[in-house]
Amino acid sequence: MIENMIIAIEGIDGAGKTTLLATLREQLHAEVIAFPRYETSIHAQLVRRALYQQMGDLTDSVYAMATLFALDRHEARELLHPFVASNALVVLDRYVASNAAYSWARTGDETIIDWVAELEFNTLGVPRPDLQVFLNTTPDVAGQRAINREKLDRDRARDSYESDRALQQRTADAYGQLVAQNWQSPWLVVEPEADYLHVADRITAALQ
């Protein structure tokens, strides 16, 4: 039995996180929380407006955007801490590593990942994940999925990050470096062709 665990699912836009999360919810009886929390967090709502070019030059500042993403998670601390102190499992759709990877990709400066960790884990006090799972989907495949999703759902129009193919590639590369460093916790890499039922078993084994 898995107890007191926070698992973060990471990957670029269109990597396949939604499908994996649905499998984990069913197979591991996990609670799922998605970031950014656009429906409930004012900080996430400001992020969304910025990503759709509705906040002037706000997106030009990597640090400002990273801070808004971080404040969304800070607001959710009360949702996350019960999973540290009780027999329960929560799976997160994006977490702090997403902020680190995108910030690194946007600046080209590796040291920003330390700034993100200090801001989120230390200053804002969000709990560290017990395991991080990286969906190693190529930017070409992920990008096509995002385009197809946009065609099927008008509410899923790609934002400025999702539409930037070069940014997605740099972010994928940054994630690869975070995985290689075991940044902040152990990582598990999931390849695009993986059977997600088997992935659930791998996660269970990794947390024993």
Automatic annotation (TrEMBL):
One of its GO terms (biological process) is dTDP biosynthetic process. It catalyses: dTMP + ATP = dTDP + ADP. GO terms for molecular function: ATP binding; dTMP kinase activity. InterPro entries: P-loop_NTPase, Thymidylate_kin-like_dom, Thymidylate_kin_CS, Thymidylate_kinase. It holds the Pfam family Thymidylate_kin. It is an enzyme of class 2 (transferase). SUPFAM superfamilies: P-loop containing nucleoside triphosphate hydrolases. The keyword tRNA processing does not apply. GO terms for cellular component: cytosol. Keywords: ATP-binding, Kinase, Nucleotide biosynthesis, Nucleotide-binding, Transferase. Its EC number is 2.7.4.9. ATP binds at residues 11-18. Residues 9-178 form the Thymidylate kinase-like domain. PROSITE patterns: THYMIDYLATE_KINASE (PS01331). This is Thymidylate kinase.
